[in-house]
Amino acid sequence: MRFSVPDFRGLVAASLLAFALAVPASVQADSLLARRPPLAPTAAPATPFHSRLPAVGIEGADDRVPADSRVWPWIAIGRLNREVGGHCTAALIGPRQVLTAAHCLYNPADARWILPGEVHFVAGYRRGSFAGHAVGARFIIAPGYDPKHATEPKQMARDWAIIELAAPLGIKPIPLSVLSLRDTMAAARAGEMNVAGYAADHGEILLRHQGCQLLGQASDVALLVHRCDVTYGVSGAPLLLLENGKAEIIGIHNAVADTSKGVVATAVPVASFASGVASALSAR
Predict the structure, then answer these.
(1) Which carries the bigger pLDDT value, residue 93 or residue 219?
(2) Which comes out higher in pLDDT, residue 262 or 102?
(3) Would you state the pLDDT for residue 52?
(4) Which of 217, 156, 207 is closest to 184 using CA atoms?
(5) Does residue 219 contact residue 153 with C-beta atoms inside 8 Å?
(6) Are residues 192 and 159 in the same domain?
(7) In DSSP terms, which residues pair with 89 in a beta bridge?
(8) 3-class SS at 10?
(9) Among 109, 97, 258, 63, which Cα is nearest to 169's?
(10) Cα–Cα distance between 258 and 32 in angstroms, integer?
């Protein structure tokens, strides 16, 4: 079996992966990934902004709707443009700190990390307008992350990075959640979970899927499993809980899996990068 993943040069084949789920008994999710599902990073290939890529990661009705990038928290989410081509999504978590997926900062075309100055965070981007823009000054990559094996489960679980921007942005950042997995699951079941990103098929606007499913957390690697409408370009997008005007990040979306039971997606949970974020913010 083979499947397609974006590598910023186009779509190429990659190996199959597998991991087990640990979720509440009421959610029959263990069988979703029991047959070695393909996991694919969902960063956008280097294609024109208006290209129509296959909506990999979206099954059935497309529940994505435009988010108002002029208001918080959506204004704190930005398009992460790479001078080498392609884009991802990222979220502002401090005056100069941006959270995204680590694989977004690696360029497999020439097997190197992108230079910080080659990355542009464009906050609140919408059809050419934006609320703020800054280039990267420094990367903080998850310890032990190996971009050459990005589709291995243990690397998927380390797929986070913080970008320190060259200049602060006057935009309110999005805080990290401190909820337990049980409380996070309960909030998600109440319809409070959102995923918002700059998908490659609609790269000029921020799209969000509100009230999508959080299925649980993997038992053998630190990965959340969700069923939200996501596709290429949404790598690095925050999983948000929204309630009473408040928003908090519970994870970073990083891949999709096409299984015999349908499409699911994965995200790095906040617990995996909370200490790294705290260190980055204290050092500013």
Answers:
(1) 93
(2) 102
(3) 35
(4) 217
(5) no
(6) no
(7) 79
(8) coil
(9) 97
(10) 9
- Alpha helices of 130-268 — where are they, by DSSP H? 153-156, 181-189
Q: How far apart are CA 26 and CA 239, in angstroms?
A: 22
| Residue 195, token pair as written in the block | 């995923």
Beta bridge partners of 180: none
What is the token pair recorded at 125? 């981007």
Q: Which residue bears the tokens 């998600």? A: 188
- The whole-model pTM stands at 0.82
Cα–Cα distance, 261 to 159 (Å, whole number): 25
Residues 183 and 266 in one domain: yes
Range(s) of the domain holding residue 187: 36-66+175-271
Cis bond upstream, residue 175 (ω within 30): no
Q: How far apart are CA 231 and CA 90, in angstroms?
A: 15
Q: Are residues 190 and 148 in the same domain?
A: no
Say whether both 181 and 58 belong to one domain.
Answer: yes
Written as six digits, the tokens of 133 are 């823009």
The two beta strands, 262-269 and 213-218, are unpaired
DSSP state of 146: -
Residue type present at position 104: C
Note whether 82 and 111 are same-domain residues: yes
